[in-house]
Amino acid sequence: MNNLKLLLLVLLTWQLTLTSCKKTEIIKKENGVSDAPSKFTEIKTNANFAWSTTKKIKIEYKPTNNDTRVSVLKVEDLNGHVYLKKLQKTSEKFSGSIEVPIHLKTIKYSIAGIQKELNANAGVLNIEVK
What we know:
This protein has one helix spanning 2-20; strands spanning 54-62, 70-77, 82-89, 94-101, 106-111, 114-119, 124-128. It has a domain at 54-128: Immunoglobulin-like, CATH 2.60.40. By secondary structure, it is mainly beta.
């Protein structure tokens, strides 16, 4: 009985192996040359195609006069992925940049109890405490 089960298991495995492996046919042109590129450099794309998966956003924090608070500056997307988090004196200027996914359309920041959403495609994130 055990030999029969083992034989059936081997036959089932063998059948699945043979039927799951199928050769992929490459369509050839009339002259017998394949259309598929054989090297990475042969891949042709549109000149406007963007290979990058990320984009840089410049951050500009404008200081507030007569305000001596120290607060956490946090820049994140709408899903809660944090791209920048730092202590920031509201009276000192700050500039920097972050790298975000290219598909990101809206980004939000919070500082000193203020939260705002801005367009991530603008390229510059101007932050003010008002």
